[in-house]
């Protein structure tokens, strides 16, 4: 597990439950109780809950998806030619500012790019890096990050499920739209992601760029047992797909919570969450208690208006508050993080860059 990781109690409990459910579903009947989930390399049986996005932002639904690509996709896989195999796994640095131990190491891996298309992958990775660093506080903290690219050579160009659900492609990472039956949910084979990311000098966050013009992506932001903190997938040639990496990186770096709710999701009655951008306190209580983002209350906020406390956050309609009406942690209608989230991200950069 990465030393940078620290999850909120609610998140940790959620992952433990999901992992337990995954294990239980594979336990033979009559077998002893399953052992705790080991912090070990991924296995075929594992599932992960992923965040799902539409062009307007993250959606209130986190399906459990398998770590591996479905059989109909893996069955199509053929070995690379010797020349292709030689090019497979090549590493380049896109942005290098310091030692991996004192930087946040972001790794781009391409999927659905043939041996002849690796230059396209490099251009696409640069474009996504530009999308991320157009937004604060990433923009003013590029000196805290290294960016690596790992070439993954696919036998076929494009990815499964594009343009239609029946399309199956033989690609290095097994990316596929229509994951869990949802057109825009772009899953990948995490075992393969893991093996390519391991080629880079270090990997804190992995972005899988799938060679496609169709909007889509996914966020694997509650990973355990991998040497990185999070993975986001996104399509290469859709103008808005870079926002998926922007949002997912914020979960990993800033330990930020989602500021949306599922609608009809009832009232949160648990303890004050650890996440810096959601709270059980309304503005008055926060000011009285000197809690959470009380120092920002009433200040101009880059995400719009002034920082306050708006009910509905952390997947609950009631009982949890967010700092602004909207922000990149709620939807993509405003392309800014609010004040508390920016502060959380800046603190996160400090954690990654401490020697
Ligand atoms: Zn999210």
TrEMBL record:
<dbReference type="InterPro" id="IPR024079">
    <property type="entry name" value="MetalloPept_cat_dom_sf"/>
</dbReference>
<dbReference type="InterPro" id="IPR006311">
    <property type="entry name" value="TAT_signal"/>
</dbReference>
<protein>
    <recommendedName>
        <fullName>Peptidase M64</fullName>
    </recommendedName>
</protein>
<feature type="region of interest" description="Disordered">
    <location>
        <begin position="30"/>
        <end position="96"/>
    </location>
</feature>
<dbReference type="InterPro" id="IPR019026">
    <property type="entry name" value="Peptidase_M64_IgA"/>
</dbReference>
<dbReference type="Pfam" id="PF09471">
    <property type="entry name" value="Peptidase_M64"/>
</dbReference>
<keyword id="KW-0732">Signal</keyword>
<feature type="signal peptide">
    <location>
        <begin position="1"/>
        <end position="31"/>
    </location>
</feature>
């Amino acid at each position: 597990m990465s030393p940078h990781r620290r999850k909120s109690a609610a998140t940790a409990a959620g992952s433990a439950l999901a992992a337990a459910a995954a294990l239980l579903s594979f336990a033979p009947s009559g077998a002893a109780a399953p052992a705790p989930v080991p912090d070990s390399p991924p296995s075929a049986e594992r599932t992960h809950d992923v965040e799902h996005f539409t062009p307007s932002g993250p959606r209130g639904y986190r399906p459990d998806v398998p770590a591996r690509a479905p059989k109909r996709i893996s069955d199509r896989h053929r070995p690379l030619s010797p020349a292709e195999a030689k090019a497979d796994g090549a590493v380049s640095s896109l942005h290098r500012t310091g030692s991996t131990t004192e930087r946040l190491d972001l790794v781009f891996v391409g999927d659905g790019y043939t041996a002849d298309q690796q230059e396209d992958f490099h251009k696409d990775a640069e474009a996504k890096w530009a999308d991320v660093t157009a937004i604060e506080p990433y923009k003013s903290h590029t000196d805290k990050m290294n960016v690596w690219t790992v070439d993954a050579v696919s036998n076929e160009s494009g990815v499964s499920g594009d343009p239609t659900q029946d399309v199956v492609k033989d690609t290095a990472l097994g990316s596929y739209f229509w994951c869990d039956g949802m057109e825009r949910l772009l899953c990948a084979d995490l075992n393969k992601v893991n093996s390519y990311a391991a080629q880079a000098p270090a990997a804190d966050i992995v972005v899988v760029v799938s060679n496609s013009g169709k909007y889509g992506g996914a966020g694997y932001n509650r990973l355990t047992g991998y040497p990185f903190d999070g993975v986001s997938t996104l399509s290469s040639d859709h103008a808005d797909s870079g926002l998926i990496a922007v949002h997912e990186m914020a979960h990993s770096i800033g330990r930020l919570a989602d500021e949306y709710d599922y609608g009809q999701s009832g009232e949160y009655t648990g303890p004050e969450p650890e996440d810096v951008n959601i709270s059980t306190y309304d503005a008055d209580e926060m000011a009285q208690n000197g809690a959470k983002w009380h120092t920002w209350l009433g200040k101009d906020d880059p995400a719009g208006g002034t920082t306050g406390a708006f009910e509905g956050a952390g997947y609950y309609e009631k009982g949890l508050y967010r700092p602004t009406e909207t922000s990149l942690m709620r939807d993509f209608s405003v392309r800014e993080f609010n004040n508390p989230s920016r502060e959380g991200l800046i603190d996160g950069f400090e954690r990654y860059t401490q020697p």
